[in-house]
Amino acid sequence: MVDRPNKPTALATTPGLPPQPQVNFSHGNSRVTAVLPNGESVVILLYGATVISWKDRFGTERLWLSDGAKLDGSKAVRGGIPLVFPVFGTAPDHVATAKLPQHGLARNSRWEFLGKSSSESTGPSDISVKLDFGLSSATLDDQVKSLWPYTFSIIYSVTLTPENLSTSIVVTNDGDQPIEFQTLMHTYLRIEDVSKIQVTGLEDSEYVDKVDAAKVKTQSGAVSITGETDRVYTPVKGPSSPVVVAEGGETVFSIVRDNLKDVVVWNPWTDKAAGMGDFEPKDGFKNMICIEAGSVNGWITLDPGDAFQGAQTISD
Predict the structure, then answer these.
(1) Does residue 292 carry a catalytic annotation?
(2) pLDDT tens, 279-299?
(3) CB burial class (10 A; 0-12, 13-18, 19+) of residue 73?
(4) What is the pLDDT of residues 37-55, one digit of tens each?
(5) What is d(CA 142, CA 217) in angstroms, rounded to the nearest whole number?
(6) Which entry of 40, 112, 186, 250 is annotated as an active-site residue?
(7) Helix, strand, coil: what percent of the chain each, to 5?
């Protein structure tokens, strides 16, 4: 048997107890993997606390990750679930975040693994595992801190169950002045054929069409992808009403949000994909759609000592 240098070491199990989730470190302690007893798994890169894999019990990958994604911490990951904070895109006219790179600092920083917790379980069908990650102003490097000199802390949690994947963020203002920020979970969902996709749950909602001069429009019927798509929706039904991705008439994903008022729908299509050096294969846009839960249309204001919490749950 060949010995792999990055082979993770499993945590020991106790005889007599039901099978428990296994949580392992690998790749020089740069990745955390959790596997449920039935085989469902999730992998998180400590760089950006980026979820880079989510597989069901059959080993089917549910997230799209570019073949050209950099997983060595040299740049933000193309694919999976990058975390956007404290600015969506760039905001040259917003004084507090004007100096920050695109999508802020969270996806370009190394996070700390804070620990895991598992649900009480009578069997493998109802077990879950939650992984917590932390980032704070105290752990940022000086160069990043100079671009956004606020005192804050974030706990980002990834929860895996047999039925779904949840990601949640808690931002606390630990300083003595208000903080204005945006946040978003830039989820790349893996699909078979984008031409067969319909997204529902956004009907009658206003959206900003970023490929048409940021015009404000209203969605009529289901969303289909027929070209480059970059839209910021504020769904009229609210966060608890699911946004559903169907392929060929069959539901493949359902996304429910908690305290995240906006949904970005993004697909780069041919030309945009060709222009991104880390987007591989170049026709990979046919096999992905981004449904991104966030609060990005306007700014969240967090007073000193206050905390903001937002979350998404993705089911199949």
Answers:
(1) yes
(2) 999 999 999 999 999 999 999
(3) middle
(4) 999 999 999 999 999 999 9
(5) 41
(6) 186
(7) 10, 45, 45
